[in-house]
Specification:
binds manganese (II) ion, mainly beta, 1 helix, 10 strands, single chain, 167 residues, ten-stranded antiparallel β-sheet
Amino acid sequence: MIHKHAAKRLHYDLRLEVEGVLKSWSVPRGPSSNPADWRLAVQVEDHPLDYQDFEGVIPEGQYGAGQVIVWDRGTYRNITDDPSHPAPMSQALADGKVEVLFEGTKMKGGYALIRMQSQRRDPSNWLLIKLKDEYVGSLPEDLEEQGQSVVTGRALQDLRGSPRRRP
Ligand code: MN
């Protein structure tokens, strides 16, 4: 699943269920369906499974304060190395090379997550890359065209101000 999150900086949080947790990457520009358009994906801490259902506003003063919507959700299949005999996800993650087939509402087809190798760089830096298949071009270049929650149909701005309490 993918959260769209208006923290200090707008970003998308890609979360894959692996062995009972949500492996998570913060993707500043969001996913692309153009194989030539590599997107930085910064791995962040694992999240508990039930966080995938969160949609709402993280209050001021808390980490990540701002609106969050469920931008996409669905299933994925691990195809790392070989679709019929994939390396286990835990192994693929440790190796820094993961290939998955998404079957989401918005995200479709194959994507690779590749950890950047340069030792001078932060080891949490990965690249999210569309694999070449029939779903190339399936996302709009401007993701705002598909900016709504797949659960509630709300956009981020529909949540603005909602936690404020009035006397
Ligand atoms: Mn986030």
